[in-house]
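1st attempt posting a full record on here, be nice pls
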Amino acid sequence: MNIGDKLKGTITGIKPYGAFVQLENDTTGLIHISEIKPGFIDNIYHYLSIGQEVTVQVLDVDEYTQKASLSMRTLEEDRHQIPHRHRFSSNRHRTGFKPLENKMSTWIEESLQFLKKED
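the predicted structure (as tokens):
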């Protein structure tokens, strides 16, 4: 079992701070309440129940006890990723901010002329 692995398991116990999971590889792990889903969880029993089958991602593994820190939140966040869009550049032309830089001196000059007329 490595950090980042996605495994299936069964909830074997629930406490106010998190849920204990028996993983398919006979390892025990804990899903801390903050790792169940994004956002605030007021009552863990509304989201999980004993015997429930879950898919989790390994956050950390204690080498001595072979117990794992697990997360369901990271898997949910992966599903809801929104593609990042560049608003001020064109990926096809690779122009970036160059057109703005080229026009900047002209805009500054126009602005100064406008302000002088206002005085």
